[in-house]
Amino acid sequence: MRLNKLHLGNFRNYRELDLTFEKNITIFLGENAQGKTNLLESIYVLAMTRSHRTNNEQELIAWDQEESYLAGELEKHGSTLPLEITLTKKGRKTKVNHIEQKKLSSYVGQMNVILFAPEDLSLVKGSPQVRRKFLDMEIGQIDPIYLYNLVQYQRVLKQRNQYLKQIATKKSDPLYLEVLDEQLIDFGSKVLLARQDFIQRLEYWANRLHQKISQGKETLTLTYLSSAFGEETTLEGITQSFGEALKKARDKELFRMSTQVGPHRDDVAFAINERDVQTYGSQGQQRTTALSVKLAEIDLMKEETGEYPILLLDDVMSELDDSRQLHLLETIEGKVQTFLTTTTLEHVKNKMTVEPAIYYVTQGVLQPELQG
Questions:
Q1: Domain end point (choices 249, 277, 305)
Q2: Does residue 209 sit in the same domain as residue 273?
Q3: Total number of domains constituting the chain
Q4: Which has fewest Cβ within 10 Å: 95, 239, 258, 280?
């Protein structure tokens, strides 16, 4: 899978931009606040329909314009696929092969991307919310059914939380709460099963990479932590355990007026040689774990979709030491189309075995480096 062409209109600080990508690695070089990250963000938005930097889509539209337009030509399974997104202050419109897509799950997954930014190094030591978002974004790309179940779960969760707040001031309807419970368990159990399966497969690839980086001295394990299903591994078992967990939590939920168990409260644990990395790991071990997990997605997506995803590296090279930089480049070179931002070529070009395409970025203007 590769992105051959990118067109931007009124996106961030780019009024009009057309790029054609012929090489496997493209480097956007320039000082901070010039628009390098905006380019990676545009590719991410083209794939995911939303930004990784903001929840306010109006920030993506040039400040004096009414709408923003993104388009790309994707090469996939031997054929080309046009993708388009129009962002307005009223919402977004997406098209695949010039045909409008009404459902998010019909669009997301057409182009698979993996974003690796400095903040992703906090995947291990950050909050559980960071890890849940990571799971949702990555699984959603390769499993449209997961995305549907997640959206439905979040809808029912919102309704249920609102009703739990009402119970404190109004007479309750046990039947209505029972209906909400059934829907929450139905959609939530499917989300849980998909997450558990994803973590198991991700662990296989992440451990292989981690052992290579640590020269065989460390074994990495990933564990999905849920208050809803414990050790259950089947949909039937998870559904039953989720229901039992909700019943046990009923008094606490009525007191706190919010849903206390379910995918929205779960977490992922990382261990090196059976020792908790989040609590006891060194900063180096935490960074190696984060790097192994992010790079493991490349092989996992290849296994799932039949093609390698597109990799977006946002100024992450300067955050890694020489050893980790080399392992990252060894993992991607020759097989993964990569877009990389940096303020200097010092950490990058001399370590590459392939010739990259380089663009100098200055205040939203791109100047390609002359080859030869």
A1: 305
A2: yes
A3: 2
A4: 280
In the listed set 280, 305, 330, which residue is the last one of a domain according to the structure?
Answer: 305
Residues 274 and 178 in one domain: yes
- Strand 14-20 with 2-11, pairing: antiparallel
Annotated binding site for ATP, which residues? Answer: 30-37
C-alpha–C-alpha distance, residues 138 and 148, integer Å:
14
- Tell me the residue range of the domain where 237 lies: 118-305
Please report, as a single letter, which amino acid is at residue 56. N
Residue 204 sits in the same domain as residue 79:
no
Q: How far apart are CA 277 and CA 364, in angstroms?
A: 40
Domain containing residue 323: CATH number: 3.40.50.300
> Are 131 and 50 within one domain?
no
Judge whether 348 and 342 are in contact, CB under 8 Å: yes
Please report, in tens digits, the pLDDT of each residue of the chain (372 residues total): 999 999 999 999 999 999 999 989 999 999 999 999 999 999 999 999 999 888 888 899 998 899 999 999 999 989 999 999 999 988 899 999 999 999 888 999 999 999 988 888 889 999 999 999 999 999 999 998 999 999 999 999 999 999 998 887 777 777 888 999 999 999 999 999 999 999 999 999 999 999 988 889 999 999 999 988 877 889 999 999 999 999 999 999 989 999 999 999 999 999 999 999 999 999 889 988 998 999 999 999 999 999 999 999 998 888 888 888 888 888 887 789 999 999 988 877 677 778 889 999 999 999 998 654
For residue 215, is it left (φ>0), alpha (ψ between -120 and 50) or beta? left
pTM for the full predicted model:
0.88
Helices (H), the chain: 36-48, 104-107, 128-142, 144-167, 174-213, 235-248, 250-256, 277-280, 283-305, 322-332
